[in-house]
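Standup notes
- DV: blocked on the single-chain target, sequence here:
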Amino acid sequence: MVKSRGYTLVALMIGLTIMAILIAAVLPLASTEAQRDKEDELIFRGLQYAEGIRTFRRRYSRYPNTLKEMYEIRPRTLRKLWKDPITNSDKWGLITLTTGAPLTGTASPAPPGGSAGFVPTPVPSPAPTPGFGAPPGQGQPVGPITGVYSLSKKKAFRLFDGRDTYNQWQFTEQTLLNQGPPVSPGPPGPGVVH
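- DV (later): unblocked, structure below
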């Protein structure tokens, strides 16, 4: 009986060693998959901000001065204030007309479709709020904001817009245009009349 107890202990040690090796092999794969999910979420949230900025500019004929302004002014152009999934922070890098390169064609917003003779209906533009989103100790607005980017300087697993570092992934109106045309829904189903 004493001999069988020794074999059980050896078998248990071998089993634990094999489990430790398997866990060590699977853990990096799980970590990589989690990071890729965060990248997908960063792209989604960044494009949400870009679309909110584009909608704000079209609705009010100016860019927002803060991200919070897009959420607080009614009607909203942003359904919620998103966190950066890479840094897990509500702080984003801001691309502004003063600090970032202005986008081509954004100095004066063109009407949708670019039709000649189009006269836009004036929409009352909310007045910029002084100090709204300003850095601590300063009373001046940050904007006008044309886009956002992550503050993380880590290398990404994938390329986005030809860039491999998160803080180089910029989400602006131009980014939305570069995403390509929307997928066509295909031919109509049975019983659908045009």
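- Follow-up: Residues 33-103+132-178 form one domain.
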